[in-house]
Amino acid sequence: MNHGRSFKFSMALLVPCLLCLAVAGYAGEKKINKKDVPPSVLKAFEQAYPKAKANGYSTETEHGQTYYEIESIDGNTKRDLLYKADGSVEEIEESVEMTTLPDAVSKAFTQAAGGAKPTKIEKVTRSGKATYEFGMGKGKSEMVIDPSGKVVKQSKTVEKSKEKEEDKED
Questions:
Q1: pLDDT tens, 104-148?
Q2: How is residue 136 annotated by DSSP?
Q3: Domain segments of the chain: what residues?
Q4: Across the beta sheet with 77-84, what order do the strands follow?
Q5: What is the architecture, at CATH level 2, of domain 96-170?
Q6: Measured between alpha carbons, how far is 94 from 74 in angstroms, rounded to an integer?
């Protein structure tokens, strides 16, 4: 095998991906220590989730805006929170169980997934609007459903697994 060609091919794939991220304004996530998190962010987290335990801190920059992420656990609920430096919440990702979903979301998932089982379910709240994200498998399949039961996003892998389940029924 010619490793030089392999490397060139890999770079040919990698460079456009990196350019897309740069154009989109995403600078990546960087792990930080608690002491590097603004006091306003820590205070907002501690007030909103007094029983939660922070497991990690990071920063990420999108479109020139720096956000501070706190990964936490609160009882059985895993929660990732994205804050602006002033302590205002930009996004909340919370683990949820299938049994706690709104009926419309549960029914929409069951119908759209065609027998696929979620390995991860999160309620994601951005700018006050919630969606429910379902992961199936090892991050290869995803479905996003709004609270009314409308499927907002569905990866091709989910659609293929649904087709396989339908074929089995025939």
A1: 999 999 999 988 889 999 999 998 899 999 998 776 789 999 999
A2: E
A3: 96-170
A4: 26-32, 53-62, 65-74, 77-84, 89-95, 120-126, 129-136, 141-145, 151-154
A5: Roll (3.10)
A6: 10
